[in-house]
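Dear H.,

Thanks for agreeing to be a second pair of eyes. The structure we're designing against is below in token form, covering all 271 positions.
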């Protein structure tokens, strides 16, 4: 995103990215249906930090394991209070491929140049200069396995934090493991919010490390929970696909009916 230390609050502001609220609401409904079709469930860790309820600007920083990340963020966005304006950074190459997203508050980031990093800094800082706004950032800037350490966050997030007078940094860990069904789970866990006022004068570099440490801890906690395969550790936000489908599940359903039993399509149900 950005690699040079920028002077705090001296860069020229940028116009807000285009965001059609009615279209964003409609796409969130579409994303919810689409995720439901392709996942067994969307689950939020019960140990997750509560979502902030005030009007402070929020920078949500998440890891980047999959193509599914933006759609999962749309599903998770309903956890935030109504009236929040959601924006998201996306790779500039992806913007050219999915231009529809530029009407939903997404803005392109050229991660290969200083100019692109400076543009990200100006855009994100402009958005977060007002209350009730959220910027979602997959700060690794590339697809990365959830087990990779260090996370290697791009320094832009730290420079944004260093420029803010008010706001919260919210770590978000996501993972898509397969448990017992043919479709994967979508797991999420929020870390404790970080108030940008906790260390006035902290450099962008130091802020990046502070955010990376918090996200790493959150991701480690989520991964430990994921390995238990225990759905009771989570709140189910969305139920999705269960069972094998097709002729096999039709045969199992018929057998259950013949016994006068309720059919359970899950892998742990009766055959």
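And this is the sequence the design step returned. I haven't edited it by hand at all.
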């Amino acid at each position: 995103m950005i690699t040079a230390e920028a002077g705090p609050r001296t860069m020229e502001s940028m116009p807000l990215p285009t965001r059609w609220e009615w279209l964003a609401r409609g796409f969130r409904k579409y994303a919810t249906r689409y995720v439901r079709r392709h996942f067994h469930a969307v689950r939020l860790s019960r140990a997750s930090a509560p979502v902030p309820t005030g009007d402070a600007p929020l920078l949500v920083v998440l890891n980047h394991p999959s193509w599914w990340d933006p759609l999962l963020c749309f599903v998770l966005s309903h956890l935030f209070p109504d009236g929040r304006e959601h924006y998201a950074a996306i790779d500039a190459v992806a913007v050219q491929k999915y231009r529809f997203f530029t009407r939903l508050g997404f803005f392109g980031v050229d991660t290969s140049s200083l100019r692109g990093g400076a543009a990200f800094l100006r855009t994100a800082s402009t958005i977060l200069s007002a209350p009730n706004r959220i910027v979602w950032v997959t700060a690794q800037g590339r697809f990365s396995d959830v087990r990779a350490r260090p996370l290697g966050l791009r320094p832009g997030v730290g420079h944004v934090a260093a420029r803010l007078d008010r706001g919260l940094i919210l770590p978000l860990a996501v993972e898509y493991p397969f448990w017992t069904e043919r479709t994967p789970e979508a797991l999420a866990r929020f870390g404790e919010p970080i108030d940008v006022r906790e260390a006035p004068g902290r450099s962008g570099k130091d802020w990046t490390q502070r955010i990376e440490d918090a996200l790493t801890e959150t991701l480690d906690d989520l991964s430990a929970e994921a390995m238990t395969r225990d759905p009771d550790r989570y709140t189910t936000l969305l139920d999705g696909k269960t069972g094998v489908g097709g002729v096999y599940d039709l045969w199992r359903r018929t057998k259950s009916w013949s016994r006068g039993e309720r059919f359970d399509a899950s892998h742990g149900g009766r055959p």
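Two observations from my side: The CA atoms of residues 84 and 132 lie 5 Å apart. The chain has seven helices and nine strands.

Warmly,
E.
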